[in-house]
User: Fold these one by one.
Assistant:
Number 1:
Amino acid sequence: MTDRVATTLGLYPLPDWAKDELSSLKGHQKADLVDGSEGPEVRAAYERVREELIDDQRTAGLDRIVEGQGRWDDWLAHPLAVHDSVETGGIVRYYDNNNFYRDPRVVDELTADGDVAAELDAATGLLNDDESLQAVLPGPYTLAELATDEYYGDDAEFLAAIAEFLAGEVEALPPHETLFLLDPSLVTNPPADGENERVSEAVDTVAAATDADVVLQSYWGAHEEKTYAHLMDADVDAFGFDFVAGDRDAHLYNVTEYGTKDAISLGLVDGQNTAVEAADTVAERIDWVTEQIPSQTFDTVYATPNTELAYLPVSTYREKLSALADAVELAAETEVSA
Amino acid sequence: MARDADNREQFRPDDHDNEHFLLTSVVGSYPKPTWLNRADDLVDDPDASFDADDLEEAHDDACRLITEEHERTGLDTVVDGEMRRNEMVEFFAERIDGYEFNGPVKVWGHNYFHKPSVVEEVSYDEPWLVDEFEFTNAVAERPVKVPITGPYTLANWAFDEHYGDSEALAYDLADLVNEEIEKLVEAGARYIQIDEPALATTPDDHAIVGSCLERIVDGVPDEVRVGVHVCYGDYSRIYPELNEFPVDEVDLELCNDDYQQIETLADGEFAPDLALGVVDVHDAEVESVEEIKQNIEQGLKVVPPEQLTVSPDCGLKLLPRDAAYQKTENLVTAAREVEAELDAGEIEVPARDAVTADD
């Protein structure tokens, strides 16, 4: 029987009180963003943010709890933006969005940092015994693409160094049920032909650092055939597909042609639109996708938004969490009654 | 194709000393006086006796103050610094039927805006800017420029819950902008600037912006100058396509990266007038007159002086007010000095040579 799991890709919007409070405490300029050396007042504010973001997921009834990444001022570039071997440069556009992050310029050797582990340690302390933690990190290719290399001087070496760095972060994490690696660059700016194998190996490096289930999720498009074929060699438990902004037919083609893992993650709720999907619509989408892949029975189907959720106002983000949780309940009921 | 931009002469001041005339202008926003920010907060405070009428008076005072501040810099065309506007999308979405608000969203760091949602077909209700224009026009002695957020940006920097097709939404909004311009022109406006920062995000949509502009200028008389401002981006992705935009002037942010992109535009074929950013709006350090003169000369690689407008890179609102003022004043001084040097034949105009060489 398929286990249906309602979860998210993390990177939540800050509660509105925190937007105001942290604006006042930190300021609005690029030098004011999180650099890993926040003072006690800022740290305390983020602790309250974390509690609230976890509580939002508990209230909605999600099956995995993420930390929420309220501190990630630089979106998926955060793990580098706070690193000692990185200098943050100018403000650059975050994909094709009206959002920006500081260009992380890697100027020295990347070593294990532990910034994300500290967040997840704190999150673990807030969870009940029956709640499962999910870690969220950028995939190695995306993190390399978001950064500027001023130290390694070679693309392959840089990607490998990023993968080792992420593996070090993962090793330091507290126990977690699932690790989502977010890798939108794999589809927005696909690896060149000769690069695909290296990318797959880089994913392996990170995935090997945990015993948890690893989901490699891409969004804003569909994988090129070659990229997908190589990724199938990576030892992850599931691929995540964007069924909102990505090309459904291309996803289904790849899955049919090359197969997929025993689990699958489906981005079904629009993380970039305030129109809130009805739970039964999301449940139907889960069924629809799995019906399109008759050749395979999945151990686990993760139902997620297609992107991070920090694009949304708080009220809408909360409604989307509920839609996902309710949809998975509905899908489970349908299966039982059938 | 570009409109016949033969309408810039109307902005030449009567007492203009030089034969050459580099139209000086601004993009629009300007730092708000600190007391105006306090007034904006105070009106939301239920314990304060400050009400909506008081706020309107505060806005009037600020518009008068900043319009006059612009005139003191010597600019040929002025604005009120957008004192009445909160944010460039929010302000218009509040005035257009079909939008609703659900709360602030992040742009970067702790910079947020109330990104609206389009929940039904957009439609025109009351005029958006006519009161603002009439007030500023009454205060100003120089011609007043009216910046309007463009339909492509109003469509793309909102959540679209209704259309499911941002292009269709943009075209509907373009028709509303056209309606607004008609009313502004009736009220006496002669210089309109359409702001399309979203095109910098998705430059491949230049054709959609072009089609929006066709709708916007439909029926607008030739003597009304219409420009479009596109914030910093990879301009090679919208040039030469922007030559097809039906506008008099295209305003670009080129100072920001020290004119690295100027050669892209300097092929001798640039069709509309170029409004060239000559001061950086992200750096509070004030450029010297000499430095700005060199920046203006970068523009002469693209267009001859009779097609060159001089302006800051973008809105000035994020700068300290004294820096905003000084940059603007230096911009005007530099333009006047370049004009005099052009009169004296002391400056070369590479754009003219580029055309001649091709011909």
Note: The two ends of chain B are 20 Å apart (CA to CA).
Number 2:
Amino acid sequence: MTRRALSSTPRRVEAARALTLAGLMMLAAHGIARAETTGPASATVCEGCHGLHGEGNAPAGIPRLAGQSAEYLSKQLEDYASGDRANPVMQNFAKALSHADIEAVATYFSTADAPRTVIPSTASVPQLALGRRLARQGSEAKRVQACDSCHGPDGIGVLHAAPYLAGQSVQYLTSALTSFQLRTRKNDPGKLMTSVAGQLSASDIAAAAAYFSSLPTGTP
Amino acid sequence: MNKVTRRSFVAGIGAASVLPAASALSEEPPASPPSSHTPAVTQAAPPAIYLFFNAGEVAFIEAACERLIPADEHGPGALAAGVPNYLDKQLGGAWGAGERLYRSGPWTAGSASQGYQLPFTPGELFHQALRAIIHDLDSRGTPFSKMTADAQDAYLKSLEGGDTDLNGVPSGVFFGMLLQMTVEGFFSDPVYGGNRDMVAWRMIGFPGAYADYYESIDRHGVKFEREPMSLGEDGERHIHPDPNIPAHL
Amino acid sequence: MVQRLKEVDVVVIGVGMVGSIVAKELAAAGYKVVGLERGEARFTVPQFQSPAIHDELRFDIRKALMQDNTREAVTFRNQSAEKALPIRRWESFLPGTGLGGSMVHWNGQTYRFQANDFELATRTRERYGSNFLDPDVTIQDWGVTYSELEPHYDRFEYLLGTSGKAGNIKGQIVPGGDPFESPRSREYPTPPQKEHYSGAMFRKAASSLGYHPFPQPSSNLSQPYTNPEGVKLNACVFCGFCERYACEHFAKSVPQTIILPVLLANPNFELRTGCQVQRINLDSTRKKATGVTYIDAAGKEFEQPASLVITSSFALNNVRMLLLSRIGAPYDPATAKGVVGRNYAYQTMSSVASFFDEDVFINPFMASGASGTLINDFAGDNFDHSGLGFIGGSFIGAVNTNGRPIQYHPVPPGTPSWGKGWKDAVVKHYNHTVMFSLHGSSVSTRQNYLDLDPTYKDAWGQPLLRMTFDFPQNDLKMAAYVTAKAVEIGKAMGAKQVAGSPRKAPYTTTQYQTTHNTGGTVMGSDPSTSVVNRYLQSWDVPNVFVIGASVYPQNASWNPTDTLGALTYWAIDAIKNKYLKNPGRLVSA
């Protein structure tokens, strides 16, 4: 694409395109056979992109699901289906699932045993420091509270409140914060994330995503 | 390791880089699963290192606290929860030395409505009273820790209801402070050295310091199920003690 | 050696809620304003952040956000015949300190007083006759009416973004709100917060008894909001660490989240923290203030000259400031002469505990400071007091603000205070109890007053404020009556056991009962029974204004903050549009 075309394409469409492309490539590259599945039948199609154990594909921006709160995963699938969380690829997958399927898939990934990972970070030291400051203190100037206050110490998540961020894909975290900012993702309780993301600059978002992504996650 | 204490954090307000956390980022992957669903690491209670209480005082305090909040089918009592350790750190710290206490005289006994009117700091009060109590128990022949539970309770009740002078401390005032601090040590955040592994919070279902209930509040009548979380825990669910948090911002 | 500074237009003593609003308005109008705050500056980031702020021992028990009582306390006695002794640890009331003042750690309960309250003496006489009250009750009219204050209430509530449901808009009763409220000009700025389970139970039970439940007006916001000053707030997440704590989420309306960004950006305003004002200085006529004297954190003494002095510190501290400055005649109960310190009142708090079976999960820890459900059927003069022998009343509500376990572990009466029996009861009842708050009015009397203590001093060598107070019979009768009514609501909720705890004498400083201390620099139309006129201007020294709950002639059935906010805008209006255009007495004596 030419630079002109890129700058005239809305960012949300770009993001969706990137994920769609990646998703299709994943399916093609992995071609997971039914026989290799360890979870319920409904999880097979998820594994194509999200991995056999929900470990995700960080560079492709496909989020890790392993160990994520089942309640959170269910809600996201319901919201993808309804459009409260806009994503053409996920919407199609979510719409194809019954409520029982959603529960089964969410439960499976929430207890999935994904290996310990530490994603190598390419972020600069100042960027990580800014991310850590936003995570642990927030910013008075930007009027945002510490991410950890809801997302837990070192971003490990807090049940019934907020998902884990630790060890999540940088690309995914960036796109999630951006989608809150652009209001293509409208499923945040109390508009809490919309309020936060609305105050952050692109470099704040990049820093927070880089920091949380650099934290260890998973089981050894 | 460069530990940033809360005191230095408070002192450094205005400096951009001071952070409230106690732990440095580790390079090593941690040994246990860092999920908020898994229980906090419950270790066998290491023996507390007492800095304020001497050995004789420890024997009384440990046994007395355990009578105030005993171990039972609901869960551990004050001793296993580390309450004597909490008392030790509070009484030996700024609080024990008179933090948040108006200390000017003259001192006159007042009415019940007028509250505490003794010149003692909490630390002084405990040492004074315990000296009298231990002396009294020595003269009776049986150390408190060797009495039956009933006998211990009877002794504590005599302190509670009585006006006995314990080196200038009315026994009811001493008992009141002991009970108040025992409840504090049981239910406060484990950073202060009590409520070990959040046993007291788990017992009653109090979720602790991470507290976003925006969605949960809609689930009327549904029991809230989540592991309690301490303000001092890190991403591996290890709790970093910090008994010197000041009683000011 | 006192250093004399360059004169400014206005000195504001105390940069809390009132000081922040006053300073912002006057600085915006072009005046040079110096704000003197005894405490330190603090902001949402980093000082209010969690999880560190969610520390019950530190903030609830040790009172970390409160005024430093090691250097300045208050002395207390129930009666004049006793010797007052220092309150050596804050318990009953908890004065704040620091930038933003006690609003930083309030609960956000935001109610207006009713029209009747502002003319309490006249209306009580009209309705119940001149002999209805006990002879030592000294309630008075305020000198200002509700309808004069209404636009200022509205302005204050929109500054905060208060979440609620109107019950009376311009005389039209609106379903879902409080039908007893006096008319407001429009809806609340944001809708009510979500209802807690205990509130839903209360609502059903109260309705079944013919009462009128409504959502508690809350300044812990239900949704994101940008106020008229352009400052943004977020939605509250019901963390249950509201009163005595600062909010990490920018969701509680406090000076830092509603006005300080605007004030601090104005170069006409200068904030000086760590400054303990010693007195307001007067000229030789003693009818004009020349400025204030203060001592900074390093112990240096300064004189700050100013054309206008506004004392906007906590109610008790306002009274003390006038006494130390010798502005106005101190009240002496023996002779009934003097006015400064007169008509001190408080709040008459009772409670009801309703105990349920262990399969009923209340989850008390999920709450904001104002996410309750209430009735005003027994508040103020909303019910006929004929034959009851008292005036006033309480709001009654399921006001669940927290489940913080050091202080909150309700047990039925008769439970031992320690041991296995206590532990059993705590486990059995912690998550299965609903607590009602009965928030009662407080009449003023001849005997309850404030003055300077003859013995005890603060760290600067100045006499402490002395408080002489006990509950009047009027209020004790009121407490017994409303508690009995509230117990019936508990029973209607289907509780297994309901225990009422009506307020009893004597008043004790050892149990928390709100920080709603009022009076001492009462406002009114008659200088012989008031310290300030209806514009909160000192009768004695026209270039001194006193803005605080110290101007209340008596206290009503509701929390004082909303009314103080309205009076602040009312006074600012008079200062900007009348006083500063033509300095002098705004009301002839």
Note: The CA atoms of residues 55 and 534 of chain C lie 42 Å apart.
